[in-house]
Amino acid sequence: MTNKLGSANPDRIPNPKKKVDDNFKKVLKIIKKDNEGKPKKNQEVKVIDFNMSFGSMVLFMVKWVIASIPAMIILFILFAILVSIFGTAIVTSFKYNI
């Protein structure tokens, strides 16, 4: 008796999920084996050069400037609060001659 694919033996039909799972288990076993007994250290990386076109660099810098606008607003608000607190304290100290 044959099945839908015409194969007489249903066990011969490849199961891609099983093959992927088996390969994944093999990879995990290799990774675990490689990492056993080794202390985990931070690896230093030194970038010597990178290749970026001029247009991409300009676009990156424009995005950088746009991203800095909210930070500048927050810094301005904090500076205004600090100036109002300490400015009031200094003006008050001169007014009452403390």
Summarize the structure in words.
It is a single chain. The protein has helices at 16-35, 54-96. It is elongated, with a radius of gyration of 33 Å. The model has no long low-confidence stretch (mean pLDDT 78). It has one domain. With 98 residues, the chain is mainly α. Helix content is 64%, strand content 0%. It contains two helices and no strands.
CA-to-CA gap between the ends? 106 Å
Outline the biggest β-sheet.
none
Mean pLDDT: 78
Number of helices: 2
Please report the total strand number as a whole number: 0
> Strand content of the residues, in percent?
under 5%
Oligomerization state: single chain
The share of residues in helices is 55-70%
SSE pattern, N- to C-terminal: HH
| General form | elongated
- The secondary structure category is mainly alpha
Radius of gyration: 33 Å
Low-confidence stretches: none
Number of domains: 1
